[in-house]
Amino acid sequence: MRLRIGTRGSALALWQANDAARRLREAGHETEILTMRTLADRRQDVPLASIGGKGVFIKELEEALDRGEIDLAVHSLKDVPSIMPGHFVLAGFLERADPRDAWVHVEGRALGDMEPGSIIGTSAPRRRAQLAELYPHLPSSEIRGNVETRIQKARDGLYAGLVLASAGLHRLDRAGEITSYFSIDDMLPAAGQGIVVLECLRANHAMRDIIRTVNHETSEVAARTERDLLERFGTRLDCYSAVAVYFDGALLRAFFSNGQRSIRVHGPDVDDVYAQLIAQGAEELV
C-alpha cells in the first residue's frame, strides 16, 4: 500500500512532509507526496484573520482527506485549530524541535540595541504582545509569507528585524540567520510549536495504526496537554488571540493578553493552570 501524503507546497511544509515520509518508509511503508495550495498560500497579501484564521492552513488538505485523494495530511501543529471537526483525528506527533522563537537581524544586531521606533516583523499576536512587554519602545507589525519571503523583506528594509520560530529556520538550514534566541519565559511559544502532526480520518483505523508507528510519545503528551488547555476556552480563541502555552513535561506555562493587560501563569497540570487563568480574568481577555 502506497501512502498518499498531503502537504502544502512551501519549502518548510515539504521538509516536514518528507521527514514524515522518511519515517514511514523506515517503518516499512511506501509513500508519495501530493502538494496543494491552501487559501493561506493564495492570499498572503492580507492579514490571516481576514480570510478565516488558522484553519486556512489546513482546510484544503482536510477536504482532500474527505474526498479520499490523500491518506494523511502533514501540518505544523501550531497551524491546527484547537477545535477540530470530529471526523478528523491527529493520529501521530513527530519529535518536537526547538520550540523557542528567534530574533533575526540581517546584520546581526541585538534586539536590545534597536533604536526606538524600529518596526519588528512578526505574524503572531502572542509574539507582538510579549514583545510589547519586553521592548515597549519597539512597535511590531504583521508579516506574511514563507521564511525566505520574510527574511527578504527584512533585507529590503521593510522591517528592522524579525521574530520567527527557530524550528523552521533549523529545518530549512537557515539557523545561520538567527541572531539570538528568546528564552521560553520571555517569549512563550504557541501551543504545539516545533511539533509536526499527522492527521487522517477518524474512521480510518488502519491508517491510524500505521501513523502510530512513527509517533513520539513525549511530544504527543506535550501537544495534547497544550491543546487541552486551549480547548477549555472553546471557540472564543481565534487567530486574533494573543495566547501562548507550553508544557515541558513537568510545568505547564500559559500567557494570555488583550494588548492592554496580560496574564502569565504556570502550574503542574491543565486543571491548575486553567483555574489560575479563570481566577485572573482570562475569559475577559479572549
Distance between the termini: 45 Å
Q: Helical residue percent?
A: 25-40%
Radius of gyration: 19 Å
Classified in CATH, the superfamily of the largest domain is: Periplasmic binding protein-like II
Secondary-structure element sequence?
EHEHHEEEEHEHEHEEHHEEEHH
Please tell me what the overall shape is: globular
Structural class: alpha/beta
Question: How is this structure best summarized?
Answer:
By secondary structure, the protein is an alpha/beta fold.
Please, could you describe this protein's structure?
With 286 residues, the chain is α/β, with parallel strands linked by helices. It has two domains: 2-97 and 191-285, Periplasmic binding protein-like II (D-Maltodextrin-Binding Protein, domain 2, 3-Layer(aba) Sandwich); 101-181, Periplasmic binding protein-like II (D-Maltodextrin-Binding Protein, domain 2, 3-Layer(aba) Sandwich). It has ten helices and 13 strands. Strands 2-1-3-10-4 form a five-stranded mixed beta sheet, sandwiched between helices. α8 (217-231) packs parallel to α9. The longest helix is centred in the N-terminal third of the chain and has 16 residues, at 11-26. The model has no long low-confidence stretch (mean pLDDT 92).
